[in-house]
Design goal:
CATH topology of the largest domain: Methane Monooxygenase Hydroxylase, Chain G, domain 1
CATH architecture of the largest domain: Up-down Bundle
Number of strands: 5
Distance between the termini: 115 Å
Structural class: mainly alpha
Radius of gyration: 46 Å
Order of helices and strands: HHHHHHEEEEHE
Length: 214
Amino acid sequence: MPEQRINLNDVLREERRSKLVPLESDFYEKAARQIRELEKEKSKIDDIYGRKYAIIDDELRTAQKSIENIIERRIGKIIKEASLHASSKQKEKLDLDSMTQEERDFHNRLLELMTELRGELIDKIFKKEKSPPKVPEEKTPEEETKEKEKEPSEDKKDISKEYIVVRLLKDIPTFVGIDGRNYTLAKEDIAVLSAVNAKALINRKAAVQIQVKR
């Protein structure tokens, strides 16, 4: 019993709509056999100018054109769906049951490639690369000496910024300074104290600041 032919025109008409038309898994095998049969029938006709030959020839051309359009439309839809899924913009899951086996394989491979490429590009563009540690430039002894000469000494920096020189106006019991050192001070002593401790004594009128000339 001959296999029932597919009405490819009807399939194409449905395919022109927005959704993917559900097709049997062996749709393309059946379409291929159908075209082979038409080609075989055409080859058996001797009168190439006869009406029968013209009918078969037209049917064959129509079938070939229809199947090409069906393939192009379906591939376009599958690519679009895979692209939306790869970019996480498509919440609804594509109905894989509407596809043939070849289309399902194509969709899965395409989705995998798109997802992989998207991830690689996003990482390349947006991922902050760790900058390599800077290697200090080697300096000549002359350059190091010049830099040290430009830098103020530790004593000067401490006195001018973190320490204050004071003269005591009264005896002060032993106390631990903010720098962790013990201080025992008597009236008229000259001391270099941390700014916090020195200001506390000055505020208590237990000491006065002495200006240090640079």
